[in-house]
């Protein structure tokens, strides 16, 4: 029972930490290729599209430029959507031509903003979408998760310590007669404390094992839908953080919190222990 | 100075009750003393002061020339390892066998299991509990439980043996037997102090008797062994 309570208390902040680490990893991956998409108006002429492409190619902060014609966009959409037959019925292609540009490394937000504004002023350009927006949202979410995991780690860590302390306190109460005899025959404070510190380690360590199992089960449960979600953003799921080091740290943290709880309990109770 | 010396010792509890009031006395090495008096006279508190289970409010208690009233907490365990204590209700550990109960002080003192066995068996022989080392306290009679408590107190070969109403729950024959056990430990040089209200029994033990009333010593005398009981205590094994 104590193992489960401590396990849940450890699993929540540890799980959030994993979420945060993986979000940061995703951010780094996406930051590796930030860019923008330019969607042209439906009646934009190939010359206008070419002019915008040439403008971007000549811009130093742009690394690559790729044009997707309206016909290519339609063909791609047919492939993805499975609505090929329905689209055949349309008189004209509803999709615009577009252009995808990838920024050079080290581009600043100000340059992106200036470039976006200039592109928006070009004739034939319908909309400019900067992928940076997603990035910023992801960064914000990552930051929230990070702070949340710290707060929860403190709160649930205190919970784990208190649960261990009260469990050790119960163990002490159950063995008061024995402790009095030990004190009477000259046992040192260390000798009296030691078994209860072992209790604390076992509670904390066991809690760490339960937390690891809970996180492993959670990862197994959310992996397929997460993989599918990331696939839709052309991302592969590359889970980081849940490795042997993470498990060792989780067990060590569990054990440490257990010892801390046990220390609090033995200090409080044994200091006031009278022999008989 | 005796082996144990109390100088103007007072123990006053938070409720204002003085269990021991300005007591000064001493106990020679190898002596046997009975503390007697009515319930609440201060006998148990007197013994608790000697093992520093309680701290005197005032005064000094010297044991082997060391004032234990001022002894730091960290030094108390080693001090207590040299004192054997027996209680009326034994305070045996119900989940441990007779052997393990008696072995507890030796294990606390850090003796090897070989030495523990070497010391526990003679201690059990002394209190006539041979063959009962594997039993649990609940399987023993009250007298046997008391003798396990005595074996636990003496197994460490203490210089001082304290007993608080050790015959309180026993019939007269068993009580005499237990008192004779204490006398035998005293004969091998252990300083023995026994708190008991069984005046008729302790009058026959031929030892010093301190009578307490309201925490004060009101009489201090030595009794003679009645004729016919001189050699009843026998030899220590």
Number of strands of chain A: 4
Reading side by side through the largest sheet of chain B, how are the strands ordered? Answer: 6-7-8-3-9-10
The helix/strand class of chain A is alpha+beta
Largest sheet of chain B: 6 strands, mixed
The 3D shape of chain B can be described as: globular
Number of domains of chain A: 2
Quaternary organisation: heterodimer
* Largest Cβ-defined interface: A-B, 16 and 22 residues
What would you note in describing this structure?
The complex is a heterodimer of chains A (276) and B (237). Chain A is an alpha+beta fold and 276 residues long. Chain A has two domains: 166 residues, no CATH class; 96 residues, Alpha-Beta Plaits (2-Layer Sandwich). Helix content of chain A is 71%, strand content 9%. Chain A contains nine helices and four strands. Chain A has a four-stranded antiparallel β-sheet with strand order 2-3-1-4. In chain A, helix 6 runs antiparallel to helix 8 and helix 6 runs parallel beside helix 9. The mean pLDDT of chain A is 84. In chain B, the strands form two sheets. Chain B has a six-stranded mixed β-sheet, with helices on both faces. In chain B, strands 2-1-4-5 form a four-stranded antiparallel β-sheet, covered by helices on one side. The two termini of chain B are 31 Å apart. The C terminus of chain B is likely disordered. At the A-B interface, helix 7 of A face helix 2 and helix 3 of B.
């Amino acid at each position: 029972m104590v193992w489960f309570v401590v396990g849940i208390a450890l699993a929540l902040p540890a799980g959030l930490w994993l979420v945060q680490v993986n979000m940061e990893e995703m951010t780094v991956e996406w930051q590796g290729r930030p860019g923008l998409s330019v969607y042209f108006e439906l009646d934009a002429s190939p010359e206008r599209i070419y002019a915008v492409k040439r403008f971007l190619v000549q811009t130093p902060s742009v690394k690559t430029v790729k044009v997707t014609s309206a016909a290519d966009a339609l063909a791609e959409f047919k492939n993805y959507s499975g609505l090929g037959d329905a689209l055949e019925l349309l008189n004209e292609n509803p999709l615009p031509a577009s252009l995808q540009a990838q920024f050079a490394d080290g581009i600043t937000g100000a340059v992106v903003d200036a470039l976006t504004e200039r592109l928006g002023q070009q004739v034939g350009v319908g909309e400019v979408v900067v992928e940076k927006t997603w990035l910023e949202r992801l960064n914000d979410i990552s930051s929230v998760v990070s702070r949340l995991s710290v707060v929860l780690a403190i709160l649930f860590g205190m919970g784990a310590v208190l649960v261990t302390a009260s469990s050790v306190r119960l163990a002490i109460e159950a063995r008061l007669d024995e402790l009095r005899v030990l004190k009477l025959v000259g046992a040192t404070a260390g000798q009296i404390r030691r078994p209860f510190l072992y209790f604390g380690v076992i509670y904390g360590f066991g809690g760490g094992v339960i937390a690891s199992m809970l996180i492993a089960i959670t990862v197994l449960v959310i992996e397929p839908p997460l993989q599918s979600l990331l696939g839709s953003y052309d991302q592969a799921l590359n889970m980081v953080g849940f490795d042997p080091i993470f498990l060792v740290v989780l067990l060590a943290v569990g054990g440490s919190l257990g010892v801390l709880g046990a220390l609090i309990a033995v200090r409080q109770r044994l200091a006031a222990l009278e022999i008989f | 100075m005796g082996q144990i010396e109390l100088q103007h010792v007072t123990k006053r509890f938070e409720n204002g009750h003085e269990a021991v009031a300005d007591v000064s006395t001493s106990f020679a090495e190898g002596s046997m003393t009975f503390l007697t008096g009515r319930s609440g006279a201060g006998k148990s508190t007197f013994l608790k002061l000697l093992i520093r289970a309680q701290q005197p409010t005032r005064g000094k208690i010297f044991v082997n020339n060391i004032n234990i009233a001022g002894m730091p907490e960290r030094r108390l365990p080693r001090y207590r390892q040299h004192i054997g204590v027996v209680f009326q209700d034994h305070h045996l550990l119900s989940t441990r066998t007779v052997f393990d109960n008696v072995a507890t002080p030796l294990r606390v003192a850090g003796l090897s299991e070989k030495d523990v066995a070497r010391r526990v068996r003679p201690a059990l022989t002394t209190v006539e509990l041979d063959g009962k080392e594997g039993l649990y306290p609940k399987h023993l009679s009250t007298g046997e439980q008391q003798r396990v408590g005595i074996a636990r107190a003496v197994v460490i070969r203490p210089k001082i043996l304290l007993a608080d109403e050790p015959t309180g729950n026993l019939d007269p024959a068993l009580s005499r037997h237990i008192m004779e056990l204490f006398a035998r430990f005293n004969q091998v040089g252990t300083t023995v102090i026994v708190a008991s209200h069984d005046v008729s029994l302790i009058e026959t033990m031929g030892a010093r008797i301190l009578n307490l009333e309201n925490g004060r010593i009101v009489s201090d005398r030595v009794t003679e062994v009645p004729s016919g009981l001189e050699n009843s205590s026998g030899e220590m094994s």
